[in-house]
Amino acid sequence: MAESINPDNIIFVKHGDKYSAEHVNRLRDKLKEFYPMTQYFCYTEDPIGVEIETIPCFKKPSLRFWWNKLAMFSADFPVKGKCLFFDLDMDIKEDPSSFLKWDGLTILKDYWKDDLYMAPHAYDVHINSSVITWTAGEQKHIWDHFMSNKDYFMRKYKGIDRFLVHEGLEFNTFEHGLVNSVANPSEWKAPIDMYNGLKYDLQRTAI
Amino acid sequence: MTYKEQLYKNALDSIEQIYKNSQYDPNEDLYRSYDIINATNSAQLESKEWLAENLSSILKNKEYLRDGEVRDVLIMGAWYGITGILLKQHLDKEYNIWNVDFDPCCEKYGQLLQRDIKGCNNNTFITEDALEYFFDRTNAFQVLINTSCEHMEQEDIDLILASKNPNTIICFQSNNFHSQAEHITTFNNLKEFEQSLKLVKVYWSGTLKTSSCERYMVIGI
Predict the structure, then answer these.
(1) A199 falls within a domain
(2) SS3 B15
(3) ipTM of the complex
(4) How confident is the model at residue B102, as a pLDDT?
(5) Which of residues 63-82 of B touch A (CB under 8 A)?
């Protein structure tokens, strides 16, 4: 496994009301244990209650929900250096650093989909953008390609994972072991639990 | 053959062409066939017929035509041009209809879909950003149509209305389909949509109930 490097920025995207500021703050609290010197950002249209620096969603184009994740790759996204993104339904259990790498665009591989048949025209994928690493400014072609026909892409693909794969955009994947999908438990003890596709409520804390 | 039969025949021919191409060309986009099916499904045709019937009755009434005869109609974000094809069937004059869409494939399949349909000469396809196209020639059209305001920024809709010739008739549609990820400007009811447009005069407005949402349409200046 490669020597770990710390990210310069950890970025969350919160749009709509599926996740709250509490999800952002809690994830920041967990990650702060492992990345105390990293800058934390939340790209959102609703900064109320968010305790880290917020980046307002672009006014043009207006995007909704998950499509906003692609804005992180825009040349206008105001961060520099190594970036690490987490979806808000991730539960950080241990330090994930040994799995992280900055080599182009890196995303998760869905270990539980390895043996599934996927018809080409279903545009399903074996990858998952719940955790992403990249260097700011080096992936702007992704945003530019999306903008070249965004309405069509949003009709064609049910999310950004499908867009990335089926538009032929280059990416790497993390080694298996970084996440455990709660819906499809892994054989390993992973540093991150992922609630992808499941309702993720914040756990109650003891009084 | 009626124009609808011809339209469906053309849609099937387009889908067949896409399928055949996909057997040899790995870059052929099979989703286009599904997109064409969606563009010609009964809900889309009902919505466009609704527009064509109501707009054509306004355009046949000289009282509403403050700048005289209609010559040029702009359809913004025209997709595969179904609105223009249907509108042509309801109009009794040879208007020029300009279908503008950013997606380059709309022009190709739009031309295939209107092939051999009576009255579709002067139903022209242009691949360009519809806003930029309009802002370059704001006085060129007597009628502006936009059936997908839900996909547009409110700021851009406001800018269109502020830039148009005061006598240009607009026919805009939106809906209350809030849950669709690509719908960025939706409304809760017709009144809300009508008020957002801030028209000097509303000639006609109405609601079409569909299985998934309510569609709103406003015609005015």
Answers:
(1) no
(2) helix
(3) 0.90
(4) 96
(5) 77
Closest chain A CA to residue B151: A151
A155 vs B contacts (CB less than 8 Å): 35, 38, 182
Chain A residues with CB inside 8 Å of B105's CB?
152
A154 contacts on B by Cβ (under 8 Å):
181-182
Q: What is the pLDDT of residue B101?
A: 98
Lowest mean pLDDT among A160-174, A189-203, B200-214: A189-203
Contacts of A156 in chain B (CB under 8 A): 31, 35
| A200 pLDDT more than 70 | no
CA distance A37 to chain B (A): 35
> From CA A5, how far away is CA B89, in angstroms rounded?
65
Question: Taking 70 as the threshold, does the pLDDT of residue B94 lie above it?
Answer: yes
Which site among B25, B102, B106 would you substitute to test the A interface, given the most A Cβ atoms closer than 10 Å to its Cβ?
B102
What's the pLDDT at B121? 87
How many other β-carbons are positioned within 10 Å of the β-carbon of residue A186?
A: 17
pLDDT confidence of residue A120: 83
Asked if residue A78 lies in contact with residue A55, where contact means CB atoms within 8 angstroms, the answer is yes
| The total number of structural domains that make up chain A | 1
pLDDT at B67: 86
Domain hosting A112: range is 9-116+127-150+171-194
Structural domains of chain B sorted by starting position, each given as residue range(s) with its CATH number in brackets: 43-220 (3.40.50.150)
pTM of the model: 0.91
Contact A121/B30 with Cβ under 8 angstroms?
yes
- By three-state DSSP, how is residue A48 classified? coil
Nearest to A191 by CA among A178, A173, A174: A178
Cα–Cα distances in Å, from B97 out to B82, B102, B118, B131, B150? 11, 17, 14, 16, 22
Per-residue pLDDT tens over the stretch A46-82? 999 999 999 999 999 999 999 999 999 999 999 999 9
What's the Cα-to-Cα distance from B87 to each of A47, B48, B100, B214, rounded to whole Å?
45, 8, 15, 21
A204 falls within a domain? no
Task: Report the distance separating Cα B142 and Cα B132, nearest Å.
Answer: 17
CATH number at residue A134: 3.90.550.10
Cβ contacts of B74 within 8 Å, gap of 6 or more: B98, B100, B130, B133, B134, B140, B141, B143, B144, B145
For A113-124, what is the mean pLDDT? Answer: 85
Residue A1 lies in a domain: no
Is A43 inside a domain boundary? yes
